[in-house]
Amino acid sequence: MTDEAPGARWAAPEMQRRLARRNAAERRFQRLGQLAIALAMASLGVLLFAIVVRGIGAFQTTELRLDVDLRPETLGLTPDMSDEEREGALAQADYRGVVRDALRALFPEVEGRSQLRELTGLISRGAGVELRGRVVSDPSLVGGSVSVWLPADDEVDLYRKAEGDVSGEGRFSARRIAWTEALSEQGRLRTAFNLRFLTSGDSREPELAGIWGALVGSALTMAITLALVFPLGVAAAVYLEEFAPRSRWTALIEVNINNLAAVPSIVFGLLGLAVFLGAANLPRSAPIVGGLTLALMTLPTIIITGRVSIQAVPPSIREAARGLGASSLQVVVHHVLPLAMPGIMTGTIIGMARALGETAPLLMIGMVAFVVDVPTSFTDASTALPVQIYLWADSPERAFVEKTSGAILVLLAFLIAMNGLAIAMRRRFEKRW
Q1: Are residues 50 and 69 in the same domain?
Q2: CA angle 382-384-388, nearest 5°?
Q3: Shortest CA distance to 364 belongs to which of 292, 257, 258, 262?
Protein backbone atom coordinates (compact mmCIF):
# COMPACT_ATOMS: atom_id res chain seq x y z
CA MET A 1 0.00 0.00 0.00
CA THR A 2 1.14 3.55 -0.62
CA ASP A 3 -0.07 6.80 0.75
CA GLU A 4 0.23 8.43 -2.67
CA ALA A 5 -3.08 9.90 -3.81
CA PRO A 6 -4.53 8.39 -7.06
CA GLY A 7 -4.49 11.77 -8.80
CA ALA A 8 -0.83 12.28 -8.00
CA ARG A 9 0.18 9.25 -10.07
CA TRP A 10 -1.57 10.63 -13.16
CA ALA A 11 0.02 14.02 -12.56
CA ALA A 12 3.53 12.56 -12.58
CA PRO A 13 5.77 13.81 -15.45
CA GLU A 14 6.34 10.30 -16.85
CA MET A 15 2.59 9.57 -16.98
CA GLN A 16 1.92 12.92 -18.63
CA ARG A 17 4.49 12.13 -21.32
CA ARG A 18 2.82 8.77 -21.97
CA LEU A 19 -0.61 10.35 -22.25
CA ALA A 20 0.77 13.01 -24.58
CA ARG A 21 2.27 10.32 -26.85
CA ARG A 22 -1.01 8.37 -26.88
CA ASN A 23 -3.04 11.47 -27.71
CA ALA A 24 -0.56 12.45 -30.44
CA ALA A 25 -0.76 8.94 -31.94
CA GLU A 26 -4.56 9.09 -31.87
CA ARG A 27 -4.55 12.46 -33.60
CA ARG A 28 -2.17 11.15 -36.29
CA PHE A 29 -4.41 8.15 -36.86
CA GLN A 30 -7.45 10.39 -37.21
CA ARG A 31 -5.62 12.62 -39.68
CA LEU A 32 -4.55 9.59 -41.72
CA GLY A 33 -8.14 8.39 -41.80
CA GLN A 34 -9.39 11.80 -42.88
CA LEU A 35 -6.67 11.96 -45.55
CA ALA A 36 -7.66 8.53 -46.86
CA ILE A 37 -11.31 9.56 -47.08
CA ALA A 38 -10.35 12.80 -48.81
CA LEU A 39 -8.19 10.97 -51.36
CA ALA A 40 -10.95 8.44 -52.03
CA MET A 41 -13.56 11.16 -52.50
CA ALA A 42 -11.21 13.15 -54.73
CA SER A 43 -10.47 10.10 -56.90
CA LEU A 44 -14.16 9.33 -57.17
CA GLY A 45 -14.90 12.97 -58.03
CA VAL A 46 -12.24 13.01 -60.77
CA LEU A 47 -13.58 9.75 -62.21
CA LEU A 48 -17.19 10.94 -62.21
CA PHE A 49 -16.20 14.31 -63.65
CA ALA A 50 -14.30 12.66 -66.51
CA ILE A 51 -17.26 10.36 -67.27
CA VAL A 52 -19.76 13.22 -67.18
CA VAL A 53 -17.62 15.47 -69.38
CA ARG A 54 -17.21 12.75 -71.98
CA GLY A 55 -20.69 11.29 -71.66
CA ILE A 56 -22.81 14.43 -71.75
CA GLY A 57 -22.22 14.63 -75.51
CA ALA A 58 -24.04 11.34 -76.01
CA PHE A 59 -27.30 13.09 -75.12
CA GLN A 60 -26.75 15.70 -77.85
CA THR A 61 -26.64 15.18 -81.58
CA THR A 62 -26.16 17.25 -84.72
CA GLU A 63 -28.96 17.36 -87.27
CA LEU A 64 -28.90 18.60 -90.85
CA ARG A 65 -31.89 20.30 -92.51
CA LEU A 66 -32.53 19.25 -96.09
CA ASP A 67 -35.23 20.15 -98.59
CA VAL A 68 -36.13 16.69 -99.86
CA ASP A 69 -38.16 16.05 -103.01
CA LEU A 70 -41.17 13.95 -102.06
CA ARG A 71 -43.16 14.29 -105.27
CA PRO A 72 -45.10 11.12 -106.21
CA GLU A 73 -43.04 10.54 -109.37
CA THR A 74 -39.83 10.75 -107.36
CA LEU A 75 -41.06 8.04 -105.01
CA GLY A 76 -42.35 5.84 -107.83
CA LEU A 77 -46.05 6.48 -107.20
CA THR A 78 -48.64 6.48 -109.98
CA PRO A 79 -52.27 7.65 -109.93
CA ASP A 80 -53.65 4.21 -110.80
CA MET A 81 -52.17 2.54 -107.71
CA SER A 82 -54.42 1.05 -105.08
CA ASP A 83 -54.00 1.96 -101.45
CA GLU A 84 -52.15 -1.27 -100.74
CA GLU A 85 -49.82 -0.79 -103.70
CA ARG A 86 -49.23 2.81 -102.66
CA GLU A 87 -48.22 1.74 -99.16
CA GLY A 88 -45.82 -0.83 -100.59
CA ALA A 89 -44.28 1.70 -102.97
CA LEU A 90 -43.82 4.22 -100.17
CA ALA A 91 -42.02 1.62 -98.07
CA GLN A 92 -39.73 0.54 -100.94
CA ALA A 93 -38.87 3.94 -102.41
CA ASP A 94 -35.23 5.03 -102.72
CA TYR A 95 -35.13 7.48 -99.82
CA ARG A 96 -31.37 7.30 -99.61
CA GLY A 97 -31.21 8.65 -103.16
CA VAL A 98 -33.71 11.38 -102.23
CA VAL A 99 -31.50 12.47 -99.33
CA ARG A 100 -28.37 12.33 -101.47
CA ASP A 101 -29.94 14.46 -104.21
CA ALA A 102 -31.15 17.04 -101.66
CA LEU A 103 -27.63 17.40 -100.23
CA ARG A 104 -26.04 17.67 -103.67
CA ALA A 105 -28.49 20.41 -104.62
CA LEU A 106 -26.98 22.60 -101.88
CA PHE A 107 -23.53 22.39 -103.50
CA PRO A 108 -24.04 22.26 -107.29
CA GLU A 109 -20.37 23.08 -107.90
CA VAL A 110 -19.26 19.72 -106.47
CA GLU A 111 -18.30 17.32 -109.26
CA GLY A 112 -16.51 14.01 -109.52
CA ARG A 113 -17.27 10.73 -107.82
CA SER A 114 -14.77 11.17 -104.97
CA GLN A 115 -16.01 14.66 -104.08
CA LEU A 116 -19.64 13.58 -104.27
CA ARG A 117 -18.84 10.65 -101.99
CA GLU A 118 -17.23 13.04 -99.50
CA LEU A 119 -20.22 15.37 -99.68
CA THR A 120 -22.80 12.67 -99.07
CA GLY A 121 -20.68 11.54 -96.14
CA LEU A 122 -21.89 14.61 -94.23
CA ILE A 123 -25.26 12.97 -93.69
CA SER A 124 -25.80 9.79 -91.70
CA ARG A 125 -26.18 6.54 -93.61
CA GLY A 126 -29.36 5.96 -91.69
CA ALA A 127 -30.95 9.24 -92.80
CA GLY A 128 -32.80 7.49 -95.61
CA VAL A 129 -34.25 4.95 -93.19
CA GLU A 130 -35.41 7.71 -90.86
CA LEU A 131 -36.98 9.61 -93.77
CA ARG A 132 -38.77 6.42 -94.85
CA GLY A 133 -40.20 6.00 -91.36
CA ARG A 134 -41.54 9.56 -91.35
CA VAL A 135 -43.14 9.27 -94.78
CA VAL A 136 -44.71 5.86 -94.08
CA SER A 137 -46.13 7.10 -90.77
CA ASP A 138 -47.36 10.38 -92.32
CA PRO A 139 -48.19 9.92 -96.05
CA SER A 140 -49.44 13.53 -96.19
CA LEU A 141 -45.79 14.59 -96.60
CA VAL A 142 -45.88 13.28 -100.17
CA GLY A 143 -46.59 15.98 -102.72
CA GLY A 144 -43.62 18.31 -103.04
CA SER A 145 -40.49 19.62 -101.44
CA VAL A 146 -40.41 19.14 -97.65
CA SER A 147 -37.88 20.55 -95.19
CA VAL A 148 -36.80 17.87 -92.70
CA TRP A 149 -34.12 17.56 -90.01
CA LEU A 150 -32.06 14.40 -90.41
CA PRO A 151 -29.08 13.05 -88.40
CA ALA A 152 -25.68 14.24 -89.57
CA ASP A 153 -22.64 12.00 -89.75
CA ASP A 154 -20.77 11.34 -86.50
CA GLU A 155 -17.65 13.16 -87.78
CA VAL A 156 -19.73 16.30 -88.34
CA ASP A 157 -21.11 15.91 -84.83
CA LEU A 158 -17.63 15.58 -83.35
CA TYR A 159 -16.39 18.59 -85.29
CA ARG A 160 -19.22 20.77 -84.01
CA LYS A 161 -18.66 19.59 -80.46
CA ALA A 162 -15.00 20.61 -80.77
CA GLU A 163 -13.69 17.21 -79.81
CA GLY A 164 -10.20 18.12 -80.96
CA ASP A 165 -8.82 18.89 -84.42
CA VAL A 166 -10.35 16.40 -86.84
CA SER A 167 -8.76 17.84 -89.95
CA GLY A 168 -6.11 15.79 -91.65
CA GLU A 169 -7.50 12.46 -90.41
CA GLY A 170 -8.65 11.29 -93.82
CA ARG A 171 -12.34 10.92 -93.25
CA PHE A 172 -13.01 14.51 -92.31
CA SER A 173 -10.98 16.40 -94.87
CA ALA A 174 -10.56 20.15 -95.37
CA ARG A 175 -13.36 20.09 -97.96
CA ARG A 176 -15.76 18.55 -95.47
CA ILE A 177 -14.84 21.18 -92.92
CA ALA A 178 -15.58 23.91 -95.50
CA TRP A 179 -18.93 22.34 -96.38
CA THR A 180 -19.82 21.97 -92.71
CA GLU A 181 -19.05 25.62 -92.06
CA ALA A 182 -21.14 26.62 -95.08
CA LEU A 183 -24.12 24.58 -93.85
CA SER A 184 -23.74 26.10 -90.39
CA GLU A 185 -23.77 29.63 -91.84
CA GLN A 186 -26.94 28.78 -93.77
CA GLY A 187 -28.64 27.67 -90.55
CA ARG A 188 -28.93 24.08 -91.74
CA LEU A 189 -27.13 22.54 -88.75
CA ARG A 190 -28.44 22.41 -85.22
CA THR A 191 -27.68 20.66 -81.94
CA ALA A 192 -30.68 18.75 -80.61
CA PHE A 193 -31.41 16.34 -77.77
CA ASN A 194 -30.38 12.84 -78.86
CA LEU A 195 -33.61 10.97 -78.27
CA ARG A 196 -32.32 8.11 -80.42
CA PHE A 197 -29.73 7.33 -77.76
CA LEU A 198 -32.51 6.43 -75.31
CA THR A 199 -35.09 4.94 -77.70
CA SER A 200 -33.20 2.92 -80.32
CA GLY A 201 -31.11 -0.21 -80.40
CA ASP A 202 -27.47 -0.70 -81.29
CA SER A 203 -26.07 0.35 -84.65
CA ARG A 204 -22.80 0.33 -86.55
CA GLU A 205 -23.23 4.07 -87.04
CA PRO A 206 -22.43 5.96 -83.81
CA GLU A 207 -24.96 8.73 -84.48
CA LEU A 208 -27.76 6.14 -84.67
CA ALA A 209 -26.69 3.83 -81.83
CA GLY A 210 -28.88 3.71 -78.71
CA ILE A 211 -29.18 1.84 -75.45
CA TRP A 212 -32.87 0.93 -75.47
CA GLY A 213 -32.24 -2.62 -76.65
CA ALA A 214 -29.62 -3.11 -73.94
CA LEU A 215 -31.92 -1.63 -71.30
CA VAL A 216 -34.75 -3.99 -72.26
CA GLY A 217 -32.34 -6.93 -72.29
CA SER A 218 -31.07 -5.98 -68.82
CA ALA A 219 -34.64 -5.61 -67.55
CA LEU A 220 -35.66 -9.07 -68.84
CA THR A 221 -32.49 -10.60 -67.41
CA MET A 222 -33.03 -8.97 -64.03
CA ALA A 223 -36.66 -10.15 -64.00
CA ILE A 224 -35.53 -13.76 -64.39
CA THR A 225 -32.85 -13.30 -61.75
CA LEU A 226 -35.21 -11.74 -59.20
CA ALA A 227 -37.92 -14.35 -59.79
CA LEU A 228 -35.43 -17.08 -58.92
CA VAL A 229 -33.16 -15.68 -56.20
CA PHE A 230 -35.75 -14.05 -53.95
CA PRO A 231 -37.97 -17.06 -53.13
CA LEU A 232 -35.08 -19.53 -53.19
CA GLY A 233 -32.79 -17.29 -51.15
CA VAL A 234 -35.41 -16.51 -48.53
CA ALA A 235 -36.48 -20.14 -48.25
CA ALA A 236 -32.88 -21.32 -47.87
CA ALA A 237 -32.14 -18.64 -45.26
CA VAL A 238 -35.25 -19.52 -43.25
CA TYR A 239 -34.52 -23.25 -43.33
CA LEU A 240 -30.85 -22.89 -42.36
CA GLU A 241 -31.62 -20.45 -39.56
CA GLU A 242 -34.88 -21.74 -38.15
CA PHE A 243 -35.35 -25.42 -39.03
CA ALA A 244 -32.05 -27.06 -40.02
CA PRO A 245 -30.47 -29.22 -37.29
CA ARG A 246 -27.00 -28.25 -36.16
CA SER A 247 -24.84 -30.96 -37.70
CA ARG A 248 -21.74 -31.40 -39.80
CA TRP A 249 -23.86 -31.49 -42.93
CA THR A 250 -25.42 -28.11 -42.10
CA ALA A 251 -22.01 -26.65 -41.27
CA LEU A 252 -20.67 -27.90 -44.61
CA ILE A 253 -23.56 -26.23 -46.45
CA GLU A 254 -22.96 -22.95 -44.63
CA VAL A 255 -19.25 -23.00 -45.45
CA ASN A 256 -19.95 -23.66 -49.12
CA ILE A 257 -22.50 -20.85 -49.30
CA ASN A 258 -19.97 -18.43 -47.82
CA ASN A 259 -17.32 -19.64 -50.26
CA LEU A 260 -19.66 -19.31 -53.25
CA ALA A 261 -20.30 -15.68 -52.37
CA ALA A 262 -16.58 -15.00 -52.92
CA VAL A 263 -16.19 -16.95 -56.19
CA PRO A 264 -15.25 -14.74 -59.20
CA SER A 265 -18.22 -13.99 -61.41
CA ILE A 266 -16.60 -15.42 -64.53
CA VAL A 267 -16.70 -18.88 -62.90
CA PHE A 268 -20.49 -18.64 -62.81
CA GLY A 269 -20.35 -17.68 -66.48
CA LEU A 270 -18.45 -20.88 -67.25
CA LEU A 271 -21.02 -22.82 -65.22
CA GLY A 272 -23.88 -21.22 -67.16
CA LEU A 273 -22.10 -21.99 -70.44
CA ALA A 274 -21.71 -25.65 -69.51
CA VAL A 275 -25.12 -26.25 -67.90
CA PHE A 276 -27.64 -23.95 -69.57
CA LEU A 277 -26.14 -23.81 -73.07
CA GLY A 278 -24.29 -27.11 -73.25
CA ALA A 279 -26.53 -29.47 -71.28
CA ALA A 280 -29.95 -27.77 -71.34
CA ASN A 281 -29.47 -26.44 -74.90
CA LEU A 282 -31.14 -23.12 -74.14
CA PRO A 283 -30.91 -20.32 -76.77
CA ARG A 284 -27.61 -18.48 -76.79
CA SER A 285 -27.52 -14.76 -75.93
CA ALA A 286 -31.03 -14.88 -74.44
CA PRO A 287 -32.21 -13.13 -71.26
CA ILE A 288 -33.39 -16.42 -69.79
CA VAL A 289 -29.83 -17.80 -69.85
CA GLY A 290 -28.41 -14.56 -68.52
CA GLY A 291 -30.98 -14.51 -65.72
CA LEU A 292 -30.26 -18.10 -64.71
CA THR A 293 -26.50 -17.47 -64.67
CA LEU A 294 -26.78 -14.27 -62.64
CA ALA A 295 -29.19 -16.02 -60.28
CA LEU A 296 -26.51 -18.60 -59.47
CA MET A 297 -24.08 -15.77 -58.75
CA THR A 298 -26.49 -13.72 -56.63
CA LEU A 299 -28.12 -16.54 -54.64
CA PRO A 300 -25.33 -16.93 -52.01
CA THR A 301 -25.43 -13.20 -51.27
CA ILE A 302 -29.21 -13.28 -50.77
CA ILE A 303 -28.96 -16.30 -48.47
CA ILE A 304 -26.27 -14.68 -46.31
CA THR A 305 -28.09 -11.35 -45.98
CA GLY A 306 -31.34 -13.19 -45.30
CA ARG A 307 -29.78 -15.19 -42.47
CA VAL A 308 -28.28 -12.06 -40.93
CA SER A 309 -31.68 -10.34 -41.05
CA ILE A 310 -33.39 -13.33 -39.44
CA GLN A 311 -30.74 -13.49 -36.72
CA ALA A 312 -31.42 -9.82 -35.94
CA VAL A 313 -34.98 -10.64 -34.82
CA PRO A 314 -34.93 -10.88 -30.99
CA PRO A 315 -35.44 -14.39 -29.57
CA SER A 316 -38.06 -12.98 -27.19
CA ILE A 317 -40.46 -12.55 -30.10
CA ARG A 318 -40.16 -16.24 -31.00
CA GLU A 319 -40.59 -17.28 -27.37
CA ALA A 320 -43.65 -15.07 -26.92
CA ALA A 321 -45.27 -16.50 -30.04
CA ARG A 322 -44.57 -20.07 -28.96
CA GLY A 323 -45.89 -19.28 -25.50
CA LEU A 324 -49.21 -18.32 -27.10
CA GLY A 325 -49.40 -21.69 -28.85
CA ALA A 326 -48.00 -20.81 -32.29
CA SER A 327 -46.28 -23.57 -34.22
CA SER A 328 -42.73 -23.19 -35.55
CA LEU A 329 -44.04 -22.42 -39.04
CA GLN A 330 -46.48 -19.84 -37.71
CA VAL A 331 -43.71 -18.19 -35.70
CA VAL A 332 -41.61 -17.82 -38.85
CA VAL A 333 -44.38 -16.77 -41.23
CA HIS A 334 -46.30 -14.40 -38.95
CA HIS A 335 -43.54 -12.92 -36.79
CA VAL A 336 -39.96 -13.56 -37.88
CA LEU A 337 -40.26 -12.98 -41.64
CA PRO A 338 -42.27 -9.71 -41.42
CA LEU A 339 -39.69 -8.28 -39.03
CA ALA A 340 -36.72 -9.55 -41.08
CA MET A 341 -38.18 -8.63 -44.47
CA PRO A 342 -36.74 -5.05 -44.61
CA GLY A 343 -33.23 -6.40 -44.22
CA ILE A 344 -33.91 -9.24 -46.66
CA MET A 345 -35.24 -6.84 -49.29
CA THR A 346 -32.32 -4.50 -48.76
CA GLY A 347 -29.88 -7.35 -49.33
CA THR A 348 -31.86 -8.45 -52.37
CA ILE A 349 -31.70 -4.99 -53.94
CA ILE A 350 -27.96 -4.75 -53.29
CA GLY A 351 -27.45 -8.20 -54.81
CA MET A 352 -29.53 -7.25 -57.85
CA ALA A 353 -27.51 -4.06 -58.24
CA ARG A 354 -24.35 -6.14 -58.32
CA ALA A 355 -25.89 -8.47 -60.91
CA LEU A 356 -26.95 -5.48 -63.03
CA GLY A 357 -23.36 -4.32 -63.33
CA GLU A 358 -21.83 -7.71 -64.14
CA THR A 359 -20.27 -8.28 -67.55
CA ALA A 360 -18.02 -11.36 -67.39
CA PRO A 361 -20.79 -14.00 -66.88
CA LEU A 362 -22.81 -12.55 -69.75
CA LEU A 363 -19.80 -12.58 -72.06
CA MET A 364 -19.34 -16.29 -71.41
CA ILE A 365 -22.92 -17.15 -72.43
CA GLY A 366 -22.82 -15.20 -75.70
CA MET A 367 -24.61 -11.97 -74.81
CA VAL A 368 -21.71 -10.09 -76.40
CA ALA A 369 -23.30 -10.51 -79.84
CA PHE A 370 -24.19 -7.46 -81.93
CA VAL A 371 -27.99 -7.22 -81.58
CA VAL A 372 -29.88 -4.43 -83.33
CA ASP A 373 -33.47 -5.44 -82.61
CA VAL A 374 -35.07 -4.79 -79.24
CA PRO A 375 -35.94 -8.12 -77.52
CA THR A 376 -39.59 -8.80 -76.88
CA SER A 377 -39.39 -12.07 -74.93
CA PHE A 378 -37.09 -13.97 -72.61
CA THR A 379 -35.80 -16.17 -75.45
CA ASP A 380 -34.98 -13.45 -78.00
CA ALA A 381 -31.35 -12.66 -78.72
CA SER A 382 -30.34 -9.59 -76.72
CA THR A 383 -27.53 -7.87 -74.90
CA ALA A 384 -27.25 -6.13 -71.55
CA LEU A 385 -26.19 -2.62 -70.65
CA PRO A 386 -22.75 -3.54 -69.19
CA VAL A 387 -22.03 -5.68 -72.26
CA GLN A 388 -23.15 -2.84 -74.52
CA ILE A 389 -20.66 -0.57 -72.79
CA TYR A 390 -17.96 -3.18 -73.36
CA LEU A 391 -18.80 -3.42 -77.07
CA TRP A 392 -18.77 0.34 -77.59
CA ALA A 393 -15.51 0.74 -75.68
CA ASP A 394 -13.92 -1.75 -78.10
CA SER A 395 -15.24 0.02 -81.23
CA PRO A 396 -12.70 1.89 -83.39
CA GLU A 397 -14.95 4.89 -84.17
CA ARG A 398 -14.09 7.92 -82.06
CA ALA A 399 -17.75 8.86 -81.67
CA PHE A 400 -18.36 5.71 -79.64
CA VAL A 401 -16.21 7.15 -76.83
CA GLU A 402 -18.97 9.52 -75.76
CA LYS A 403 -21.57 6.82 -76.32
CA THR A 404 -19.66 4.59 -73.92
CA SER A 405 -19.47 7.31 -71.27
CA GLY A 406 -23.15 8.15 -71.76
CA ALA A 407 -24.14 4.51 -71.26
CA ILE A 408 -21.97 4.42 -68.12
CA LEU A 409 -23.89 7.44 -66.81
CA VAL A 410 -27.19 5.64 -67.38
CA LEU A 411 -25.87 2.50 -65.66
CA LEU A 412 -24.58 4.54 -62.72
CA ALA A 413 -27.96 6.25 -62.45
CA PHE A 414 -29.70 2.87 -62.17
CA LEU A 415 -27.17 1.56 -59.65
CA ILE A 416 -27.44 4.70 -57.51
CA ALA A 417 -31.23 4.51 -57.68
CA MET A 418 -31.25 0.85 -56.59
CA ASN A 419 -28.84 1.46 -53.72
CA GLY A 420 -30.80 4.55 -52.70
CA LEU A 421 -33.96 2.46 -52.68
CA ALA A 422 -32.24 -0.08 -50.43
CA ILE A 423 -31.19 2.65 -47.98
CA ALA A 424 -34.66 4.20 -47.98
CA MET A 425 -36.30 0.84 -47.32
CA ARG A 426 -33.87 0.15 -44.52
CA ARG A 427 -34.67 3.44 -42.81
CA ARG A 428 -38.40 3.17 -43.45
CA PHE A 429 -39.02 -0.37 -42.23
CA GLU A 430 -36.14 -1.06 -39.86
CA LYS A 431 -37.30 -2.07 -36.39
CA ARG A 432 -35.32 -1.21 -33.28
CA TRP A 433 -35.62 -3.21 -30.06
Answers
A1: no
A2: 100
A3: 292
CA distance 390 to 368: 8
Residue range 121-133: mean pLDDT, rounded: 91
Extract the runs of DSSP E, i.e. beta strands, from 117-193: 145-151, 189-193
The whole-angstrom separation of Cα 121 and Cα 143 is 27
Q: What is the pTM of this model?
A: 0.83
What residue spans of 56-142 are helical by DSSP H? 83-92, 95-106, 113-120, 127-137
CA dist 125 and 154 (Å) reads: 10
The answer to whether residues 405 and 58 touch, using CB atoms and an 8 Å cutoff, is yes
114 and 74 in a single domain? The answer is: yes
Query: Does residue 253 share a domain with residue 290?
Result: yes
User: Tens digit of pLDDT for each residue in 293-302?
Assistant: 999 999 999 9
Number of domains in the chain: 3
Q: Are 220 and 333 part of one and the same domain?
A: yes
CA 429 to chain centre: 28
Are both 153 and 106 inside the same structural domain? yes
